[in-house]
Amino acid sequence: MRILVVEDEKKTASFIRKALQAESFAVDVCHNGDDALAAASTTPFDVVVLDIMLPGRDGLSVLRQLRTRKVSTPVLLLSARGEVNERVEGLNAGADDYLPKPFELTELVARVRALTRRGGENKSTLLRVADLTLDTLTHKAQRGGATIELTAREYRLLEFLMGSADRPCGRMMILEKVWDYDFDPGTNLVDVYIRRLREKIDANFQPKLLQTIRGSGYMLKEAP
Prior knowledge:
Distance between the termini: 32 Å
Mean pLDDT: 88
Structural class: alpha/beta
CATH superfamily of the largest domain: Response regulator
Strand content: 15-25%
Order of helices and strands: EHEHEHEHEHEEEEHHHEE
Shape: elongated
Radius of gyration: 18 Å
Number of helices: 8
Number of strands: 11
Strand order of the largest sheet: 2-1-3-4-5
């Protein structure tokens, strides 16, 4: 399960991220509304934890734009104000739940878990690029009808690349999203796993989908 946390207070965002990671969620973090809108519009998250008070584009604006773009990802709104009219406005804008600040991390985790169950009832679990498919529920990968065996880390890498299809993904971005690193370990870790993945999804198939973008990183793209 992948969660997007949108919180401009970096200390609070860090607490939320660690609490969710402790429950085996993969967590991405944004600190402003514009980055959150871009991320949630292009990556298949299971839940978005969205603070209302953000610099630039506020949380309610992000939420309205997501629903306008037909992004149905469940959204848990956070707010330090907690007035009833704000809560109603958020729910009317398309939020699935609302949690006033301050809150207990255990309650936030429980609400996120409830939203993942609710979202899973209607959410498609199949990612597809050309004849390559990945079921995010069963973790089953196939290409051309043939099953592809993946390790846990290879699965996370493929899931991220398929969720970001047609967009270059730099090594640092991959380290953040797949390994949860916020630093460069100074190794060729990403290149090694890309090579392993390429051997499994491309070596015996045409066209080749996993492309190296010189100076930018890697991209999963259906050949023209």
